[in-house]
Amino acid sequence: MFSSSGHPLCIMGNVVDSTGRESVKTILVQNGKIRAIQDGKVPFSLPDLILLELADDEVVFPGLINLHVHSEYNIFPLWQSPAVWSNRYQWRINDQYIQEIKNFKEYIEARWVSDYMGFVKPIIQSLTTKKEEALTAISMASAISEVQKMHGVITELQAVAGGTTLIQQTIKLENNGSLPSFIVRNTGDPDELGLPDTKKVFSVVDFVRPGPNFDPPSSPLHANDDTSAWPMMRHPSFDDFLASVQNGNNRYYASIAHIAEGRAGYLQRGKPDGFSRREFTEFRKALAQLPNPEFLKTANLTLTHACGLDYSDPATLDFLRDNHISIVWSPVSNLILYRDTIPVKTLLDHGINVCLGSDWAPSGSKHVWDELKFARHFCDAVSLNISNAQLLAMVTQNPATALGNVKAGAIETGYNADFFILRKQSSRQSALTALQMQDDSSVRCTIVNGRVLYGDEDLFINTLSVDYQRIPPSEGRASEKKVVSINSSLHFDLQKSLTQVDALMDRYASEVLRLPQLRRTRLLSSDDHLYLTRINLVKTYLAELLK
């Protein structure tokens, strides 16, 4: 991660604790860690100290954690799904999805080097010793790496603008190689979590898949098919996970795995997805056959979506709780794709650790803060007695617990110095109410690893005096006074990169999709009117289900 500050930082003002209450504190940050916390305003005296004293209507939250995000898709526009599906394997191979999302992504990743040599060639030349050097495999690989960086920084910035400071690994899931981390912490780098290099977090897309030699029907006409008889085969990732568990979790310190993503039978009573139910049944059988199944208790396993589990069965709930298995809840994506989601209150009441995840731009929230606000709407609509403090924990303490109690998600001495500062409507408004009522235009700044990375321009001018780049005017009115300070070693030009991404997307949308008005999702949800309209539509879906 290219985010750090060589200067100590002192923050004085209202600070949120683990219960959501706020009190005046003074926080000292050094070398990316919280070194001391004092009650009241007690300024420290250190050389080169940066003092950040908050106004009465500002409050410090711990940086948010998002354990379910496919960040490489988060530059893409919202996908208009042609159906309400039973199971994830249906829409994944739907022709419309393949053309509008999957192929679109592959074009962005693979073809822009050849199609936009005018952009790539200067990058190659800057990486070579001789300007006239011909293109080689090495220089081309370097250029592709730079393009990946451009993509990665843009998607991470979208998260940072929403107060997120730790995400599931950037660019590609299910990759055990060394993945880049640019301006935010991610689970792909153990060092970012304060773990030894040998303690890896395994991000898994699938433990099982339909097959072999079977393609699920992907036409919208088959969206309500009974999937229970589909053949099932293990993905190699499942064997990797089982081997790690059997050997005392020596390979993976924690694992985050998609499982049983489909219709839950909760909002759509009596209509659970059959394949999803079988996924979890086979998962439990395989674990029970291990010589040392008790090692699962220390595997720090998190299940993403997990809609298809039979939560009416006490044995299922006991299995999750007793093996310390966490669940990531993504209600926006669940409702868009399946018009269903998990009975989250049942899980909480049974002592199961629940986190929130934004999923991805094609069918999810802009960032995990928006997912939290939708979760509030959902709980109120369904009359679930879940507090704002419990929802805050789902994006702070709970995901830190899921990752094996890493030192993140709270403002405590010795923890990572990751925060975001929110401007409330007034000094009298409570912090938790502000978190629900305000939007990402009200983020005063986001701090990662002790570095003020993003926020209002006046803060950078009057307090920080560091280099920064403005968010381009094309991103909308809420972004006009927002800036980002990106480590100079990244050699990243935000304006140029956004222009390039937009040019690529415009070409594919116009020439392939024949949708010339299609645009990239904007960085801030408060500036993205199409996105906000879509979220309101999801609320309409929910209201119709509850009639």
Give an overview in words.
This protein is of the alpha/beta class and 547 residues long. The protein has 2 domains: 9-65 and 415-495, Urease, subunit C, domain 1; 70-95 and 161-401, TIM Barrel, CATH 3.20.20. The protein has 16 helices and 20 strands. Strands 1, 2, 3, 4, 5, 16, 17, 18, 19 and 20 form a 10-stranded mixed β-sheet that branches. A 5-stranded parallel β-sheet has the order 9-12-13-14-15. Helix 2 crosses helix 15. The termini are far apart. InterPro entries: Amidohydro-rel (IPR006680), Metal-dep_hydrolase_composite (IPR011059), Metal_Hydrolase (IPR032466), MTA/SAH_deaminase (IPR050287).
Cα(first) to Cα(last) distance is 48 Å
Structure annotation, total helices: 16
CATH architecture of the largest domain: Alpha-Beta Barrel
Helical content (DSSP H or I, runs of 4+): 25-40%
Structural class: alpha/beta
Q: What is the C-alpha radius of gyration, as a whole number of Å? A: 23 Å
User: What does the largest sheet look like?
Assistant: 10 strands, mixed
Topology-level CATH name of the largest domain:
TIM Barrel
Count of domains:
2
Strand % is: 15-25%
Q: Which stretches are low in confidence, meaning pLDDT under 50 for 5 or more residues running?
A: 130-135
Mean pLDDT: 90
Number of strands: 20
Identify the CATH class of the largest domain.
Alpha Beta
Assembly status: single chain
What is the molecular shape? globular
